[in-house]
TrEMBL record:
PANTHER family: CUB AND ZONA PELLUCIDA-LIKE DOMAIN-CONTAINING PROTEIN 1, ENDOGLIN/TGF-BETA RECEPTOR TYPE III. The chain crosses the membrane at residues 536-558. PROSITE patterns: CUB (PS01180), ZP_2 (PS51034). It comes from the Eukaryota. Residues 247-488 form the ZP domain. SMART domains: CUB (SM00042), ZP (SM00241). Keywords: Disulfide bond, Glycoprotein, Membrane, Repeat, Signal, Transmembrane, Transmembrane helix. This is CUZD1 protein. InterPro entries: CUB_dom, Sperma_CUB_dom_sf, ZP-C, ZP-C_dom, ZP-N, ZP_chr, ZP_dom.
Amino acid sequence: VGAPRCGASLQDPNKPLTITLNANASCVWQIQRNVNQTIRLIFSYFKFAPSSSCETESIKIYDGPSTNSPLLGQVCNDTDAIPVLQSSSNSLTFRITTNSVAFTRNFFVFYYYFLPEKSIENCGGQLTGPNGTFISPNYPAPYPEFTYCVWHIQTPKNTKINLQFKDFFLELDYNCQFDFTAIYDGLTTNTGLIGKICGRAQPRFESSSNVMTVVLSTDYANSYRGFSAQYTSTPLPGPVEPNIYLTCSSDTMRIVLSKAYLASLGYNETHLQLNDPTCSPVTTDSVIFSFPLGGCGTTKKNEGSSITYTNIISLSATGSIITRQKSIQIIAKCKMENNSTLELIYTTKNNVIQDITTVGQYNTSMLFYESDNFSKPIQHSPYYVDLNQTLFVQVSLHSADPNLLVFVDTCIASPQPDFGSLTYDLIRSGCRKDNTVEIYQPLEHYGRFRFNAFRFLHSFPSVYLQCEVLICDSNDTNSRCAKGCISRQKRDVSSYRSKTSTIVGPIRLKRDLRSADRSESLTKADAEEASKPHQYSFYMFSFVVLISNIVIVVAVILKYHIKHQPGYGYQKIQSL
């Protein structure tokens, strides 16, 4: 067994090749012999560099004497089969190309010339019906050399196949490079490999549908008795709905999978892993992954009007040499809109300031603060403000992603909670429209500004404030947040407008308690409290009347007394 390190011209009737290559290789092997036979080429073992792609690393097989001949097939890192290729003539060529990754690649290849018309008894065929048996050629005597047999099994619709090898004895080696049996989940040998076996065993396999393919391949030496196999069919279970739930917040991504759904795929919680395999799920009645939005291998992609966070749950068999299952990936994406719409209400004179937050998918909030150091938020209620009082506003983003920036894009005011026809711009497209507005520089997860309180003429003292904020990737120097004030004429509205908006309301202020439609619903205690101002007004009125009468009586007496005193008269004040 052997071959030159990189490429060769081969003329042997059969030959095994053990090939070892490193990075940046491009090696060509040419097989040609002057006989009226064809070539069977088998890549029974191949190990490429991890994560390599077909574009950078592959084996290409050509049906002829050079790489200019027609392409017969290609083998890559993700090839889900044991490639067996057959030439149309007496020549065949293959090239192995590797990428620049420092890694030792290993391949085992063998070929042999044969006559296609030569048949072997009990070597392959079509097997139909709900159950059946088949054996390797010559069983229980040793199987022939250079044997390649293919059995296609097909059972009734809506069933799956259970295959058991009652007796199995092939040449043993660690990678099953020489003699092997391969089992495929389907009617083709190009993909869907669910098992490759050799040596002594009694393995079982199960298909996902009513078709299965079994291959026997042998080389030129060390033949044993082969195998005896039996297959049966069982009804497929009813479909199980993909019971998966995904919830996203500014802080976390939460994925919930039902155990029944995993079982229907042939898996359980031990077969699951995220992009970062160290992040484990919590198992209760369901399997739950809950992790920071930027953690556990989550990737982030800025898509202009939104930021998408993606993680992948991989389901794959573990703890065995063979597998009967295909790997499955569940891709979870949290698409976070860049825009969040927030609403805040303040009222002048004797009404209440109250904040109402509506959140897109990012968790944001908006509060008033006592001063421009933004250390003490206004938490108590009621909170009274005067006309022209300076109000300090902060929008906060609650997210575990440190690479986000909050930008106050637009704020409008209205005397009505539905923001009808009468509105007043405070900020528009990041530009201040009121001369009392001062916008602070964006600071990580905070957007801040201040303005002086006002009221609308000929209207109620309440003023409703609605602000639209943008959330951007702080590393993106071309984002809307980085551009600051942009005039309406130059602004691309479609890039910034919120795609989802929720309005919370109606807002009920304290003055509603004095309205007529609420008066009938007051409790007795409320009625007593409500009557106190009227009683107080009555007492004050009586007191004022009494004092007025006393003043009148005293005035009359004084007038009479003074009038009868001698020398009483008016004196003109001299000018100064």
